[in-house]
Design brief:
alpha+beta, 3 helices
């Protein structure tokens, strides 16, 4: 059968995860800065999602995000609901979801009461 079916299902899963992230205010995919020249069809945000098979056959989806709003607990709860729904609808059996918050965007701090003053 080859690798076509799992690879296509994995690509569909990544697209679904990114679409779910678009619906979650307060999070964005954590990606590297985009170089000046990239292939036209390349979805740079897909680098924030890994679909991997662990020893023993378990499949894990790792989603790396940057928080653009605070407080985090309600945002993470919404992300969990949205992302688990995508995984449940996927053609790939996924055992675990791991959401990694790699940073907090400075704009998130601007919205907090009693703003933080950063002195040079």
């Amino acid at each position: 059968m080859g690798l076509g079916a799992p690879v296509n299902a994995s690509a569909e899963l990544v697209r679904g995860v990114l679409a779910a992230l678009d619906r979650i205010p307060g999070l964005r995919p954590a990606t590297l800065p985009r170089p000046a020249r990239t292939p036209a069809a390349w979805n740079w945000d897909s680098l924030a999602v890994d679909v991997a098979e662990e020893p023993g056959g378990d499949r894990v989806v790792v989603v790396r995000v940057v928080a653009t709003a605070l407080p985090l607990p309600p945002i993470v709860r919404q992300a969990e609901e949205e992302l688990l729904a995508v995984l449940a609808a996927s053609a790939l059996p996924v055992t675990r979801l791991r959401l990694e918050i790699t940073g907090v965007d400075g704009t998130a701090l601007d919205e907090l009461p009693g703003k933080f003053a950063i002195e040079p």
